[in-house]
């Protein structure tokens, strides 16, 4: 496999971003991510080994992938993750490696993350209140997470993005407090619309879409738009006058960004998933373990990209709940 083939899909979107879920295990059990409190079921053999993952990444890079995010489950619970991160960072052709974590294990491991070459992280933080945090995550670990975020900051990771899934009745009374953090900290706080993934009993009335979230932040001040840079993700960026941090909105339901989606996901069970909100997946673990060549692996990528839909069909009025589990797909 010598020729570089850029991964353009049928709709001429250039796919250069691979998000990899390295485990379906997690040390939190967030109600929106794992609504039925399921026990992760993948066995050791069921997940891809680091060697297998690195081989997949090398093939992906030769095809034009230049940006990698490691997620889960909780990526930091998987043994050997810090060495793995270092090996990804060292792959020629990769321009950006980032990590999404719930922050529980950050404080004790931030140096290892930094030494691996990771410069920026996203931390999920849906509440600033210990009791409410426990209600949402089913674990009393708020202080540990907050200390982890503080230590990432003192180690100079930049930017630190805080992901807040907006859920009516769970954390909407905290939106203003969370947004106000941007006056005291340089964090990029991103409100994410709650998506109907892995929950047959998904209740639409719990969803709060971006226009309503923005309204609720009005009292704090005027949100000033910051233009998105070419490599920015789907968040629309804003800042309150006088704030040092940013506020972003990821509006997967109210404002689809499928037309310039550059993402491909690799699930913890070893399947390529071209759209988070579509259950179509392409098995890559099977071919990999049956001894296929790099060229054949590249073909699996092409096929997955071929299946990438023009867009998803979930709107505020129409749900097509997705069966896949967020903790296995990686979010
Ligand atoms: N354990 C890590 C963490 O908590 O950030 C990484 C995995 S988590 C599945 C990745 C992201 O998915 C998190 O930012 C989480 O908030 C988001 N997420 C999970 N379920 C979601 C849902 N139903 N709607 C919107 N975002 C969701």
Descriptive account of the structure:
- The protein has 331 residues and is an alpha/beta fold.
- The chain has a single domain, classed as Aldolase class I (TIM Barrel, Alpha-Beta Barrel).
- 28% of the residues lie in helices and 17% in strands.
- A 12-stranded mixed β-sheet has the order 7-8-9-6-5-4-3-2-1-10-11-12.
- Strand 3 (96-101), helix 3 and strand 4 form a beta-alpha-beta unit.
- Helix 1 (50-63) crosses helix 9.
- The protein is globular and about 60 Å long.
- The chain starts with 16 loop residues before the first strand and ends with a helix.
- 43% of the residues are buried.
- The model has no long low-confidence stretch (mean pLDDT 94).
- It binds S-adenosylmethionine.
- S-adenosylmethionine (SAM) is lined by residues 26, 32-33, 71-72, 74, 100-102, 124, 163, 165, 192, 194-195, 197, 326-327, 330-331.
Q: In brief, what are we looking at here?
A:
The chain has 331 residues and is of the alpha/beta class. The protein is built from ten helices and twelve strands. It has a single domain, classed as Aldolase class I (TIM Barrel), CATH 3.20.20.
Per CATH, which architecture? Answer: Alpha-Beta Barrel
Structural class: alpha/beta
Number of helices: 10
CATH topology: TIM Barrel
Strand arrangement, largest sheet?
Answer: 7-8-9-6-5-4-3-2-1-10-11-12
Cα gyration radius (Å)? 19 Å
Query: How many strands, which pairing sense, and closed or not: the largest β-sheet?
Result: 12 strands, mixed
The CA-CA distance between the termini, in Å, is 31 Å
Helix content: 25-40%
State the order of secondary-structure elements, H for helix, E for strand. Answer: EHEHEHEHHEHEHEEEEEEHHH
* Portion in strands: 15-25%
CATH H level: which superfamily? Aldolase class I
* Bound molecule kinds, no repeats: S-adenosylmethionine
- The parts where pLDDT drops under 50 for at least 5 residues are none
The overall strand count is 12
* Assembly state of the chains shown: single chain
Q: Choose one word for the global shape.
A: globular
Mean pLDDT: 94
Q: How many structural domains are formed by the residues?
A: 1
Q: Report the CATH C-level class.
A: Alpha Beta
């Amino acid at each position: 496999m010598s020729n570089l083939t850029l991964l353009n899909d049928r709709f001429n979107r250039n796919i250069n971003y691979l998000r990899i879920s390295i485990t379906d295990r997690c040390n939190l059990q967030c109600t929106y991510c794992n609504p039925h409190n399921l026990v992760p079921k993948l066995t050791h053999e069921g997940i891809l080994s680091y060697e297998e993952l690195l081989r997949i990444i090398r093939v992906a890079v030769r095809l034009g992938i230049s940006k990698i995010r490691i997620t889960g489950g909780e990526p930091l619970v998987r043994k050997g993750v810090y060495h793995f991160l270092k090996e990804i960072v060292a792959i020629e052709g990769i321009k950006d490696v980032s990590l999404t974590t719930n922050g529980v294990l950050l404080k004790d491991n931030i140096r290892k993350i930094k030494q691996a070459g990771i410069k920026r992280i996203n931390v999920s933080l849906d509440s600033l209140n210990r009791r409410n945090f426990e209600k949402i995550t089913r674990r009393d670990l708020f202080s540990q997470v907050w200390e982890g975020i503080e230590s990432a900051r003192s180690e100079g990771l930049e930017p630190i993005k805080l992901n807040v899934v907006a859920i009516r009745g769970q954390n909407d009374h905290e939106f203003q407090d969370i947004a106000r953090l941007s006056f005291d900290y340089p964090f990029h706080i991103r409100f994410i619309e709650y998506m109907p993934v892995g929950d047959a009993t998904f209740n639409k009335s719990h969803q709060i879409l971006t226009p309503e979230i923005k309204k609720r932040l009005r009292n704090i001040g005027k949100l000033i738009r910051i233009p998105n840079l070419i490599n920015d993700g789907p968040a629309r960026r804003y800042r309150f006058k006088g704030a040092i941090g940013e506020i972003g909105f990821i509006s997967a339901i109210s404002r689809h960004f499928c037309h310039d989606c550059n993402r491909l996901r690799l699930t913890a069970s070893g399947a390529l998933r071209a759209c988070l909100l579509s259950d179509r997946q392409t098995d890559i673990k099977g071919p990999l373990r049956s001894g296929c060549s790099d060229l054949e692996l590249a073909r699996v990528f092409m096929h997955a990209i071929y299946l990438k839909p023009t867009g998803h069909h979930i709107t505020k009025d129409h749900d097509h709940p997705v069966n896949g589990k967020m903790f296995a797909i990686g979010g």
